[in-house]
Amino acid sequence: xxxxxxxxxxxxxxxxxxxxxxxxxxxxxxxxxxxxxxxxxxxxxxxxxxxxxxxxxxxxxxxxxxxxxxxxxxxxxxxxxxxxxxxxxxxxxxxxxxxxxxxxxxxxxxxxxxxxxxxxxxxxxxxxxxxxxxxxxxxxxxxxxxxxxxxxxxxxxxxxxxxxxxxxxxxxxxxxxxxxxxxxxxxxxxxxxxxxxxxxxxxxxxxxxxxxxxxxxxxxxxxxxxxxxxxxxxxxxx
Length: 238
What we know:
single chain, about 240 residues, mainly alpha, two-stranded antiparallel ribbon, 12 helices
């Protein structure tokens, strides 16, 4: 691997990943609320309890402006990582430049230089890169994480983490190559570091306010979507 190319890839991926589609969407929508500077209040259904979610990403804007806007921002956040990773994979399939781009694109998303290093938590950026690296693995681990978190661990917050943790064994056993393993470990560590404020709040809030798995899922756009699908399928999550 050429160090000069690696440096250029890392810097370019970081600067591209640092683009905040959440902030762009807020400006286009003429929103007076700003997830860039204000925490998003999460209200537990049928309760007066709230906590503050401070991420600047698809989940946050979805709570302000609806699931469609949040979904669009999430897709754009995935694309800004997936497209350069895919291009690098096609250009140099025998060199781990594309893995480097996936990692540093996520770093840019979580700690963007354009916005005082205050960004999202990186969920969309992780899966954007992973889809370009291993589409089947991205689908299997994300679905496996959701099912395991909801129906086995019965903890919706852990469902996010479990899907990413599954990346580590998946990439190791499917490739047996150290660069892939290092990539999976790096994005997991970065996601945990970026999520520390919310992890602390969620642990305290869950103990005090969430009376059931369903209650813990209802405040979140993805949780609501999953509940709708399971209800229609006749699977009642309680």
